What does this fold into?
Amino acid sequence: MKWSKRAAAAILAGVMAVSMMPQVWAAEEENSLPEQETTAQQPVQAEEQTVQPETPETPEQPETPEQPETPEQPETPEQPETPEQPEIPETPETPETPETPETPEQPETPDKPQQEPVVLRTDHSAFMSGYPSGKFGVNDSLTWAQTSVVLYQLLADQSMGDLPCTYTDVKETDWFYQAVTTLASRGILTDAGGAFHPNDTITRGDFVCLMVRLVGVDENAVSSFSDVAQSDPIYPSVSTAAQRGWISGYSDGTFRPNAALTRAESVVVFGRVLDRKMDTKVLQQAQDLREFVDVPASHWAYGAVLEASIDHDGAANEDGTETWNSYTPSYPISLTYSGKTMTRNIYQGTKPYHVPEKDDSGKDITHWMTPNGVVADPLDRPVSAAAAYVAWYAPKLMTAHNQYISGYGKNQFGPQDSLTRAQACAILYGLLKDQSYGSYPCDFPDVPAGAWYEKAVKTLASRGFVATGEAFEPNQPMTRAEFVEMVSRLVAYTDRDSQFTDVGADDPYYHAIVTAAAQGWIGGFGDGTFRPNEPLTRTQAVTVYNKILGRTGDKTTEQQMDERYTFVDVPKGFWGYQAIMEAATTHTYKKNGDAEAWSEYTHKYTESVSWESSTSVVAASKITNKITSTYSGNYTQKYNMDYANGLKESYINGKGYSSKTKYLVWVSRQNQKVYVFSGSKQNWKLIKTFICGTGKDSTPTPTGVTYITYREKGWNHDTYSCKPVVRFYPNTGYAFHSRLYYPNYNGLKDKRIGFPISAGCVRMLDTDITYLYKNIPNNSTVVIY
It folds into this structure.
């Protein structure tokens, strides 16, 4: 039978290490064995060992040529049948050993240092943990690196020895480096200088050889496993382990030495080596033991697993049992995500070491939250009782740049006014793409049914933005800290120091504030403070919301905006002017680097539009920054486009238009507007904007530059009438006039306006055409574009 070189060389690396596996959960799992007193009460001392690697029965060990002078088997000194070991002379140069063949346990090997006795810790600390899934992994295999790490941590003396460690595949950056190099330097791991193969699976035979090396081989021990013959090199170790009661093999009489060692098998054997036994009374009565989902009480290794995974103070009894005087209780910590709940038992006073950052689909988990909607990172909370956490995913926000805040009556914004808690929630609710209810409780004693903010507040609470369990106080000002705490739910918390002098690590809003600062949402005040308890102003709120949304605004356009869109209490020089205009104006845009280039914009007005009032119509218009002569509306009165007043002036002055009078008229076919300017060339100022209706597509009003030729009181035809009339384009019938009336001005026949509708003339509201008729003299320039 062929054995692994590990078994043949009997390299020691005793038990497996969950703690150094890539995925660990509990804080104690990082080191697998928490720090304990290093003074062993009953040290397990290795007996003097007899290792016979030079025997002819082990030809697979040609790697020991450094000991040619120690022929421990003098009965075959000539060894003619082992040419692969030419370094063993046929005539021993050490004649003093042949005459003592009956004492092979005292080989004379002066050139090979004796391995020091191995003393293991005897405190009953946990030396094994489970997986993040809450499983122990009873049937999982172990690697040599894992066993080395655990054994290193179980040494009573962890100091370095004098032997070199030159493994070619063990680097200082490896997580098992300290363990492997220490064990090698102490002679516990041998064959240093070759490859260690840290990720190779350890077999049952390897493991037994390692365990037996702790106490020494009993040459008189026998075993009867059908797959371990007396001629096998591991037979002495297997027999010793069987005689000591560490192993018993399988029911079919085999030992299966080449099978991978399981985690369950390792804790059973190691518990027997250490003479550790689970307290049966605790096992039957305790309700706070650390258990694993894949190790039920009926499992054959149940007691051994708990003995190995729970810190306790234990004492051996005369009858071979063990009594636990005390132990560290553990509590179930549940994590719900991806439609499932995983429960893991964590020791009291410790913190979980790892929680998933992504769910099973790869989606980022933004926060872990308690059942009542409080952000609570399990990694920051020492366990003191059972707890449950639910994965929280940041919702998507609107990407369209719509208006999300309005002003007050009389065109005021209130830039320094505080934002109430209800208002803040209403804004955030309006920005959510998905406004459905969530699963968190959302009842507040002071949020009555039917209140204008009820749906917003309760939806945000049900989605985990607002914690429940007490009064909401909707009309109270929201503080700066409360606001940041609410919006910071949108991103994972940042682990960094506070940049503000008045926000310390013990502040309940610490994580939210430092996260918002790291995101660039807040910057604090010039004196280095954040002032978390001050009321949040409306300007501060929109500034933060814009940054969250990535809305930077169009500075050029916003500076051109006129009184139809600006607020009387927000001058253009105010520090928050651009942020307010961005938030209070619906607009389409294109990105130009970090800046925006608006194509058109509008307010969301609540008042109704009267098409008999030019002022009302114009006030509700949508603004475009693209000037063209082509109408792009929907041929209804609901389409109401315009330019900003500043853009109108820039266009007319930029084109260099002049007039023989102090007036100039521009007819915009795109917007269906008539603009009246006063001034002179390159110094025109807009004084009036009127709604109109130009020629329909089949009879368009011609583009060009012309002038007012003359005026008439009205036209009265057989099918219609209109008044007054202001003519343009000499020697043609084109004119400005009112909408169409029945003959003799008996009532409006066609009240439509605001889109191309005429036979080529420009229709206007009565008051507007009357203004032209009375105020704009002949020879005034008319631009039609």
In short: The chain is about 20% helix and 15% strand. Residues 7-114 have pLDDT under 50 and may be disordered.
